[in-house]
């Protein structure tokens, strides 16, 4: 029961980066850019997200641990312009991998290599049902997100396949449409203020979402155009980002007379950057790194537990999926 509270899967730090934003630039050489998402009908590309977290838990000897978690998520994104002027973006999961390294040993599974003799079936049971499933976003002609679906359906599918699992209990709170809407649908537009911009321009955006037993999480994002340059005869725009992550004051509390964990306190700071290829009109790479501290009393009478999480994240967008050697296939 308490493991779910001890090691929250901080995939939410992926909110730090603009995932699918696009750029059109009429005058990059003149240091003026138009930061506006460019939806191209029929465009298909591959997204690979890598999230590495070093997690250290202290304060309660029976639960103390030091582990490294690496997750890779690969997906195909396809854009369709509809006859009514709306835009549909469908993201279909193609690969999911998870590796846990700790004093207890190594546990890993990769849907691209399910027959690996080291593969852990308890992780594979969670990841394998993701393959071929999709999330869908719809935007109006002003590039405003109007609908999001698919994440909760995927959660239900995994729950049905897995039943109860300690690993799934740590992960499943993030499989909800509220978080998915922000992570996949709204945050990419936060990096694109739909106006002309020059080097040094800044803008900000804040989001809040329900993180289940962790309460309401608030993320404050600040973006800056750090450089506009030519690279291999292509105009490239670099955008720097800073994010603060914290809990709201309305985390769930036990009812009077009942026992349960006290609300956690979460604070994190992150820095990152994104690279826009103005010829392709899309982000080709993004990265972020940060540190999050969670403090909590997991049950009445327990001491204060501290969870330190150091995170590194990258997102790479390519026309084709890379093969096992790291080269783009075919």
How would you describe the overall organization of this protein?
With 330 residues, the chain is mainly beta. It has helices at residues 3-6, 121-127, 151-162, 166-171, 177-190, and strands at 24-27, 32-35, 44-58, 65-81, 87-102, 105-110, 134-139, 145-149, 195-197, 202-210, 216-231, 234-247, 265-277, 282-296, 305-318. 13% of the residues lie in helices and 48% in strands. It contains 5 helices and 15 strands. The longest helix is centred in the middle third of the chain and has 14 residues, at 177-190. Helix 2 (121-127) packs antiparallel against helix 3 (151-162). The model is unreliable at 1-29 (pLDDT under 50).
Percent range for β-strand residues: over 45%
How does the helix and strand content classify structurally? mainly beta
- Rounded Rg: 20 Å
Could you give a short account of the major beta sheet?
A: 12 strands, antiparallel
Overall strand count = 15
Order of helices and strands: HEEEEEEHEEHHHEEEEEEE
- Tertiary shape: globular
Rounded average pLDDT: 84
Helix content: 10-25%
Low-pLDDT sequence parts: 1-29
Query: Kindly, what is the distance between the CA atoms of the first and last residues, rounded to a whole number of angstroms?
Result: 47 Å
Q: Helix segment count?
A: 5
